[in-house]
Amino acid sequence: MSIKGRIKEILLKMEGEDRFINRFAVKLLLMRKIGFPLYLTNFFFQRILRNQSEINFSVHFTSKVSHIENIKIHYDLITLTSFAVSGNCYIQAYNGLICGKNFLFAPGVKIITSGHDFKDISKPTKNEPVIFGDNVWIGANVVILPGVRVGNNCVIGAGSVVTKSFVDDNLIIAGNPAKVISKREE
After folding, report:
1. CA-closest candidate to residue 97, choices 128, 123, 121
2. What is the rounded (10 degree) CA torsion for 91, 94, 96, 99?
3. Which residue in 69, 79, 130, 166 has the fewest CB atoms around it within 10 Å?
């Protein structure tokens, strides 16, 4: 194995651990994976222009992530790559968002954890957090509504509107409103 391959193997073993040096190593892998131009563009918007500067990982410059303090993610390469390359996403985590390992999502995804109170639209509603299990893959332009839970190893098809929870594992979900269309083979 080449030296470059050994270094990559060591760095991949460290990903997901929550120490500064490990986060730095994963950021180096991320820069290599998404390409320097996009990484630099995201860096320019996030760190120089101060667009979403409170977020400590790379977010695509056309996406909006709010209430970052209520988001719990794993610092693995797949999850961080999704945040960095998936443009035009809207992630509103007022009531909390919990993402398992290897959380993969495509461009245009909308994850909404709170609506508006009917009596006073300036007040957000209280809901359960949106929770995704490990190895969840969300297709382009999917809308996830408040309180939804998705099990492990699930795929949500492009353009779906997920209005209810799917807690079973290995499901393929699609449609508006979303429903189970088949089981994934393990």
Report:
1. 128
2. 10
3. 69
Which tens digit of pLDDT belongs to each residue from 102-124?
Answer: 999 999 999 999 999 888 888 99
Q: 20 vs 2, 9, 15, CA distance in Å?
A: 26, 18, 11
Active site residues: 116
Q: Residue 74 carries which side chain, given as an amino acid letter?
A: H
More confident residue, 87 or 20: 87
Read off the pLDDT of each residue in 129-142 and give the average, rounded to a whole number: 98
- For the chain, give the secondary structure using H, E and C: CCHHHHHHHHHHHHCCCCCHHHHHHHHHHHHHHHCHHHHHHHHHHHHHCCCCCCCCCCCCCCCEEECHHHEECCCCHHHHHHHHHCCCCEEECCCCEEECCCCEECCCCEEECCCECCCCCCCECCCCCEEECCCCEECCCCEECCCCEECCCCEECCCCEECCCECCCCEEEECCCCEEEEECCC
Please state the pTM of the whole predicted model: 0.86
Distance CA 64, CA 96 (A): 15
Look up residue 97 and give its amino acid: L
Q: pLDDT digits over 5-37, tens only?
A: 665 666 556 555 556 666 677 778 888 889 999
